[in-house]
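Case study: 2OG-FeII_Oxy domain-containing protein/DIOX_N domain-containing protein.
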Amino acid sequence: MGEVDPAFIQAIEHRPKLKFIEAEAIPVINLSVSSLSDTKEVVSQIGNACKKWGFFQVINHGVPLDLREKIEKVMKQFYDQSLEEKNKVKKDEDKAMGYHDGELTKNVRDWKEVFDFLLHNPTVMPASHELYDQELLTWTNQWPQKVCEEYAKEVEKLAYKLLELISLSLGLSANRLNDYFKDQNSFVRLNHYPTCPFPDLALGVGRHKDGGALTVLSQDDIGGLEVKRKSDGEWIQVKPTPNAYIINLGDVLQVWSNDMYESVEHRVAVNSKKGRFSIPFFFLPSHYVTVKPLDELVNEQNTPKYKEYNWGKYLANRKSSNYKKLGVENIQIDHFRV
Ligand SMILES: O=C(O)CCC(=O)C(=O)O
Ligand SMILES: [Fe+2]
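Here is what the predicted structure looks like once written out:
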């Protein structure tokens, strides 16, 4: 990744900013509750953060710190290997999970390398994104490491806790959304953003919205994640908070909530001095789930704003654009707007 390869260059309007305005920080929410009134307060903070930002951070989240440190160590060891070694567990159009260093976001290459692994190994998925094709297949993990499995299970617990709090914040019962995750496609990504000689031209991950329900992200102390502020479209840095998790809502929650909450655009800036690591857990429904605005949240005045769609097909469609440069934009939730 040494030379200035034009494949990495962002269009001028999407290049990272060199100067940031002083901005109000993304809310930090303390999840440790000891009473019903504490829970109510947390639910209200989460609801407000979901409406205002689509992003928040959580502390006292219950994921053991030593496990997080262990997976960070394993991740660094993995990326320290030669490209030849890493390519032994490469993912491609047939193998959905594994290593890759050539992913694209919106047809521009990202300055990053990734390693993906499933929470549930194996996981059932549609064989293709074509709606007529009913064939299913299984996704499986490569390079299984015990610590990866343990970490994913702990973050899954946090994801359910957040799902329940979000559900309450929408005025629903705590477990209203849980059944959609019975055979979930959730996976963890180990992101490495190497130092970049032209950080003013490239991005670690180009602007995008996460397609799933929720993302539970651990970042190191380098910084680089930027969120598009809903009020004015400014890019705001998410300053690292030690041991916190960053939570953002994905397209599925936007649709379920019928736009009460939105999946907000974000991107990752890189830098020329230090590499950065981050670990998102993408909390994704089961492949057969039909995503549509929840019946409880629509009525005659507030009619459904989205057509229903099949989650597995949506995911398969997104995956198919990760490596190939397409002549068209890849699938976006706005394509399902009524
Ligand atoms: O590395 C980060 O901070 C965010 C990564 C991200 O947005 C993603 O992988 O979807
Ligand atoms: Fe993302």
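For the exam, be able to explain this: Residues 146-169 form the longest helix (24 residues).
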